[in-house]
Amino acid sequence: MGKKKQKIILPPELPPEIPDDEVEVSDEDLQFVKENLGYASLLSSLDTHSITKHVTRVADAKDDALEELYEKRLRKNALKKEKEETGLQVDRVDALPIKALDGTLHYRTATKAVSENDPSEEGTGEDISKEHGIVKLTKAEKRAKLKKMKKEEKKQGKVVAKAEVEETPQAAVLAEVKEDLTAEEAFENKKCKLAELGNALLTDPESNIKFLKEMVQISRDNDPTIVKLGLLSLLAVFKDIIPGYRIRLPTEKELEMKVSKIVRKMRYYESTLLSAYKAYLQRLVILEKKPSFQLVAVRCICSLLDAHPHFNFRESLLDATVRNICSTNEAIRKICCSTIKSLFTNEGKHGGETTVEAVRLIADHVKANNCQLHPDSIDVFLSLAFDEDLVKSKKIEEDQKLKNKKGKKRKNMEASNQLVENDRKKSRQEMISKTRDEVEADYKAASFALDVMEKRQMQTETLSAVFETYFRILKHTMQSIGARPEANPGLLSASVESFPLLAPCLNGLAKFSHLIDLDFMGDLMNHLKVLASGSSNSGNSSDKCSKCLTVSERLQCCIVAFKVMRNNLDALNVDLQDFFVHLYNLVLEYRPGRDQGEVLAETFKIMLCDDKQHDMQKTAAFIKRLATFSLSIGSADSMAALVTVRHLLQKNVKCRNLLENDIGGGSVSGTVPKYQPYSTDPNLSGALASVLWELNLLSRHYHPAISTMASGISTMNTAHNQVILTKSSPQQAFKEMSLDQQLCFTQSGSLKLNNKKRRMNGPASSSSPTVTTSFDDNELHRKLNSHFMLLHDIKENERLRKELDWTALSLQLYEQYKKQKRRSKPSK
Amino acid sequence: MRPLDETETSAVFEKLFKFVGNNLKSIVENPSHEGPDSNPGRYCFRLHKNRIFYASESLVKRATNVARPNLVSLGTCIGKYTHGGNFHLTVQALNLLAANAKHKVWLKPQSEMSFLYGNHVLKSALGRITDNIAPGDGVVVFSMADVPLGFGVAAKSTQDCRKLDPNGIVVLHQADVGEYLRMEDEL
């Protein structure tokens, strides 16, 4: 910036220097003038006129007040320069052009004006920062303000500089400067006023409540910074003074009634507060739609909603928050999400009503946007908490009531039998019960605890809204899957389009699976089944659709289905055969890099390890497939698979004849006499007729843990009473292994140590690890060298081929061109 | 002994389809390993004396040597035509169905006997049940140890089973292995 300014300033500086130099005219110059008289005449005639005019005019302007002022300010500036080094650029410019005439002068006045204002600005900044001390935004705010101020200064500097270049008459420039000054002063004044008002309101809100209107007025200013400051300071004030109850404006009847002074004052206070709050909210809602104010407005809305979810007009607040929950702006989205989460978790603040409203609004939002939102907007539901005790306690109460009724009946019977002699006793009892009821009613009215019934009502509403959303997402996914292959299979974008809400939706379903109504269950399971299979119709469309849903998503569908079933059906044990079929096929589609191994491990855990009973056929098929699968994937995944295999073999003694060396077949393997590795149904694969030869290969795995595990499994049959020490789940195994891998990459030395230890422990692990350790560096180096040489050669080869193709192509083109020319010539 | 005509085939296949669904394909295309023939034939259906038999092609070829009145049985008998002209599956088809069953029900050990005496399967007897059974589907009944016990027709869907009271009927009895003892003569 400084350079630019100097460049701009330079041209006016140059012309006045020339007349100064007239004294020192060299001989050569004289000679030149003598020789070319023509030039000299021109020069003299032009120069004298313009320059003298110029100088005199400037001098006139200078004489009166400006020079004095300027000198004073110079001194001041010099002092300040010592103190603060922030405004360096401006100071430099000040120091340099002292000699020059017009441009520099104006510049000085402007900078001085700014520097003069500095102390006051600082003061206001401090004031405001005091205010914001409550909001805890001080440092960032201060910095932002400083930046803004600097920018403004620079802008002003620019404007003034331009003015100089144009060489406008002095008066106009002065007026402009004055305007700037007044604008800045106004800015400062407003800031000060805001601070004062805010302070006054905070110290004594009841007597100073009318200041609110002024503050709102200020926040309607044209200057964006003032508006922002106004909004933020209003936020701080409102946060502090909003009462802990909802304000109900008095009706006309109530207004007519005579009331005491205090009540009147209170009413006035409340109504002013409410109207100001309303105006403020309206302003916020308007500003929230403007991109430049959006962040500030949303922040205000969210913190208000967070602090006072019970207060009036929370509907508009909620509405704005939910609207912004899927905003493209990361910061805004985060703020909104955290606000809504805190709404859900701190239900005590608003008694749960806001939760219901928020959930409803989000559900409507999802509906309106046709499920194309950011996943965060649904993730919010995960922080909802439902009180399960409510339902139970209600039931217990009902039971008690029933018992009481029975008891009463019995008592009545007894009473009728015992005649009316104890009438007095009865009346006394009645009295007692009556008073007890009254006391209870009073207690309920006094304590703010909500009625159990009301709470239940709200919970059911919330739940229904949440599940409505979830089911809508599922349905939408289903529909789009079903419609896609028919609509336009060739379109790439369609298959690329993903379902952003599906993953959080499945998570939510898994979390709240115990709360799903049994009536929905059938539909839900059907949907999940279709999603897990990845296509609505079997056959050729399946491979197209498998692109739409990733493997991990489909695995997650299986998990959710199992969780739903398990949580709801303790009484009836339902066998989810279809999901097993899907898992059986999904294992083949799994790719270690692309899909999430954690999900796969979790699926193994939930579907295969936790389930109590399995068909022998199915189990054998899974054992066989997992063993095959673990041959071809990374160590962590294969470890998870092997843990599952071991678990299955431990549970199902019959399946251990997979470990025998002779092929089973016959009656053992059912009707399928031969193992069919490509069958899609685990029940028909005939895996019992096969042998787990994979374990033998796996026991030579490069990873020591896997090799020991594999050899442990293969000896399971012979060592009958073997106590299995590690009872880890596939998930744990996966985690450990993936951690292990990371460690291996960082320090390969430790692996060797581990290796040795494991060799000591595991007797079965044979010489395979020694091979890895015995590699010496030289050999490795040599091999890598040759490998890379080969790679390099291949690359070179490819490049040469490409070049050859190019030249051939260009030759061809040239020939064609020639031919065309020849043809065109004869035609002409 | 003769191959089935069109109506008979459709009747048999429809009945089987209720139990095995799409696995019917594997029943029909099941390669046989019987006999000394070098290339394995397939299994086929044959009608003989109102009974439907499931036998390998090599066996059928050899059975042609026996005169019709003298031939009692070949392969597995899977059902019979009643006097009314309806096709019924018999217990002997159980193995075939169990291997390819789509809908299964597992019985609790204490209620196995009740089923083997020819009673329907009650809700209280259910140890396990496969998902999405619709009423009218064919269901194969297993013991908890995965031994096939018989088959029947679902009276209620899996969803309805949840709300059913313990004495409600889930599977209507059609055949069970107890018939080998009870109705030895008829089989």
TrEMBL record, chain A:
- InterPro entries xrefs: ARM-type_fold (IPR016024), CCAAT-binding_factor (IPR005612), DNase_TatD-rel_CS (IPR018228), Noc3_N (IPR011501), Nucleolar_cplx-assoc_3 (IPR016903)
Record's keyword annotation contains Nucleus: yes
* Claim: Electron transport is one of the keywords in the record: no
Q: Which Gene Ontology cellular component terms are annotated?
A: nucleolus
Compartments it resides in: Nucleus, Nucleolus
* Gene Ontology biological process terms from the UniProt entry: DNA replication initiation
PROSITE patterns named among the record's database cross-references = TATD_1
Q: Where is the composition biased (Low complexity)?
A: 765-774
Cite a single GO MF annotation: chromatin binding
Q: Where is this region: Disordered?
A: 1-21, 111-133, 401-429, 755-775
Q: Which SUPFAM superfamilies match?
A: ARM repeat (SSF48371)
**What are the alphabetically sorted keywords of the record?**
Coiled coil, Nucleus
Limits of the CCAAT-binding factor domain: 555-710
Q: Where is the Nucleolar complex-associated protein 3 N-terminal domain?
A: 190-280
The similarity annotation says: Belongs to the CBF/MAK21 family.
- The protein's name is Nucleolar complex protein 3 homolog
Name the species this protein comes from.
Clitoria ternatea
Automatic annotation (TrEMBL), chain B:
Where does the UniProt annotation locate this protein? Nucleus, Nucleolus
| Keyword set includes Ion transport | no
Tell me the GO BP annotations in alphabetical order. ribosome assembly
* One GO cellular component, as annotated: nucleolus
Question: What SUPFAM superfamilies would the database entry show?
Answer: Pre-PUA domain, PUA domain-like
Q: What does this protein do?
A: Required for proper 27S pre-rRNA processing and 60S ribosome subunit assembly.
Similarity comment text for this entry: Belongs to the NIP7 family.
Subunit architecture:
Interacts with pre-ribosome complex.
UniProt name for this protein = 60S ribosome subunit biogenesis protein NIP7 homolog
The opening ranks of the lineage are: Eukaryota, Viridiplantae, Streptophyta, Embryophyta, Tracheophyta
